[in-house]
């Protein structure tokens, strides 16, 4: 082990200051022992470069394993989110198709009913004109007018019912769409938090 001072020069310095040669050598050997003991204690707490590089390589390999696990987890989570998003899109398309089919059906039914009512009204009106020509059937004309107003009321109520039904379908679609969007956002935020 190398010493970082000259022991002979220290012995000479001690002899010049009144110590004997034997006392000077004992003092210097005691100092050397103390320094060696201190250096041994310091070296116990220190690590060599080789040990430090081995520990660094172990930490880097552990970090690489964690990165691989995170990439695998990310891919599986992303594919799960994508498949769930596709399912939601398919469900929305099916619901949209069902609603459009219902709307088309209701419109067709209403058109058919309106055409039937119009034809009835036309027949009644033509019949009324014939009846008006005769004075005997004047009372029947008033009854037909009542029938026309009732038909108009029926048409108005059916149109109002259709409007309310369409509005309720629109609200249901909006609710489902909003729920789906919030679900996708919640999942995306969760994935974002995992990523960060």
UniProtKB/TrEMBL annotation:
Please give the superkingdom of this protein's source.
Eukaryota
State its location(s). Mitochondrion membrane
Question: Can you tell me where the transmembrane regions are?
Answer: 176-195
Asked if the Swiss-Prot or TrEMBL record annotates the protein with the keyword tRNA-binding, the reply is: no
Origin organism is Fregata magnificens
Identify the GO cellular component terms for this protein. Answer: mitochondrial inner membrane
What is the protein's major site of localization?
Answer: mitochondrion
Q: Which Pfam families match?
A: CCDC90-like
- UniProt keywords, alphabetically: Coiled coil, Membrane, Mitochondrion, Transmembrane, Transmembrane helix
Which family would the database say this protein is a member of? Answer: Belongs to the CCDC90 family.
Q: What is the recorded name of this protein?
A: MCUR1 regulator
GO terms (BP aspect): calcium import into the mitochondrion; positive regulation of mitochondrial calcium ion concentration
